[in-house]
C-alpha cells in the first residue's frame, strides 16, 4: 500500500532526522512500503521524512533512469562503469564531495509540478548501512550521485529549493503557496498542510 507523501510546507520536511537503530521495530515493513510508494509515484528517490518518518533513511533507483536514456545521453549523466543502482541507505553520511560540479534539472515528489536547475558535486563518497544493516562505503558519480545527494539532503531537512538563487525562489513563491494549500494535485497520494489544519 502506498504511503501519502508530505507536500511542501510540512514541518517534517525541515527536520533533521534521527539515526535508525539496528533493530528498529517495523523497519523492513517501512522500507517495503517506501519502495511501493516510490514506484507508485514514478519517482527515482524517496526519503523517510517525505512519508512522515523522522529517520535517516532513503531509497534511490538510478537504474530506471539509466535504462530510459539513449546510449548517447548516458555518458553525460553516468560514469563509464555505472549502470545505475537500486539501493536502500540507512544512517548515511557523505564523507567526501568532489570539487568538480555539474548542473542539471531536479524535481521532488513533495513539490509536484516544479523543477529547477541545481548545481551539485559530480562525485561523492558515502558511508551507510544497507537494507541488511551491513556497513558500506562507496563512491558514486553523475546522476546516481545527484539522486543520492538529493535524498540525503531530505534527511538533513534540506530541499533542492535551498540551492536556488533568491530571485528564482521568489518567482516560485506563488506556486509553492498553492502546493502548500493543496491546490496542486499530484498523480499519487499526498498529504498537504491544509489537510492537517482542517
From TrEMBL:
BP GO terms, sorted: translation
Catalytic residues (positions): 151
Listed InterPro entries: Peptide_deformylase, Peptide_deformylase_sf
Function statement: Removes the formyl group from the N-terminal Met of newly synthesized proteins. Requires at least a dipeptide for an efficient rate of reaction. N-terminal L-methionine is a prerequisite for activity but the enzyme has broad specificity at other positions.
Class of this enzyme: hydrolase
Entry keyword set: Hydrolase, Iron, Metal-binding, Protein biosynthesis
Family the entry assigns: Belongs to the polypeptide deformylase family.
Enzyme Commission numbers on file: 3.5.1.88
Pfam families reported in the protein's UniProt record: Pep_deformylase
Cofactor(s) the record lists: Fe(2+)
Superkingdom to which the source organism belongs: Bacteria
A single MF term (Gene Ontology): metal ion binding
Details of cofactor binding: Binds 1 Fe(2+) ion.
Positions contributing to Fe cation binding: 108, 150, 154
Reactions mediated catalytically: N-terminal N-formyl-L-methionyl-[peptide] + H2O = N-terminal L-methionyl-[peptide] + formate
This protein's name: Peptide deformylase
